[in-house]
Amino acid sequence: MTEPTQPAPRRFPRRVYGVGTEPDARFSLANERTFLAWIRTALALIAAGVALEAFVMPIAPGFRLGASILLTLLGVLAPIQAWLGWLKAEQSLRLGRPLPFPNLAGPIGGGVFAVVGIVAPPQTFWTLSVVCSSSGQIRRMLYVWSSRKA
Q1: Which conformational region is residue 96 in: left (phi greater than 0), alpha (psi within -120 to 50 degrees), or beta?
Q2: Do the Cβ atoms of 78 and 38 come closer than 8 Å?
Q3: 121-141: per-residue pLDDT in tens?
Q4: Residue 136 lies in a domain
């Protein structure tokens, strides 16, 4: 295994690449994949916020708008977490320190749970009633079908 080398003089951002030694490429690439996962999460949250407001759902308009705005704001927070998390993790890798905790993951997760709490109950009860009523029909259909085979 080769010895870590000093970073190239013109890499951006200097506060990351200007400290420590070059880590194993696998760790830097894993850090970049985590960054991209946060970006995908941001896109999904923004798309969910837009979709929630665009499609007609059996939710009170005020709750629907509030949940939509909350999802969009969470989608704006996720890239901030991506960038700050990448910076801190890359610095930690270069300096041989423990990896940092994602500071905005808690608020983003809590916000998603709040949206689920706003949106899920009407949908859940509607879905359960449809499933319960249709499962009775499915049982009757299976009974008729099985009695025909006998």
Answers
A1: left
A2: yes
A3: 655 555 545 555 555 555 554
A4: no
> In angstroms, how far apart are the furthest CA atoms of the chain?
82
Question: Is-contact 75 43, C-beta < 8 A?
Answer: yes
Q: What are the φ and ψ backbone dihedral angles of 101, each rounded to 5 degrees?
A: -80, 140
Asked, for residue 148, whether it belongs to a domain, the answer is: no
Global pTM value: 0.70
> In this structure, what token pair is assigned to residue 16?
């990351």
Read out DSSP for 107-148?
HHHHHHHHHHHHHHHHHHHHHHHHHHHHHHHHHHHHHHHHHH
Quickly count: other Cβ atoms within 10 Å of residue 101's Cβ: 9
- Domains: count for the chain: 1
- pLDDT, one tens digit per residue, over 9-54 is 677 777 777 777 888 889 989 989 999 999 999 999 999 999 998 9
Is the four-CA dihedral 113, 115, 116, 117 of positive or negative sign? positive
Residue 130 lies in a domain: no
In-domain check, residue 26: yes
Cβ count near 51 (within 10 Å): 12
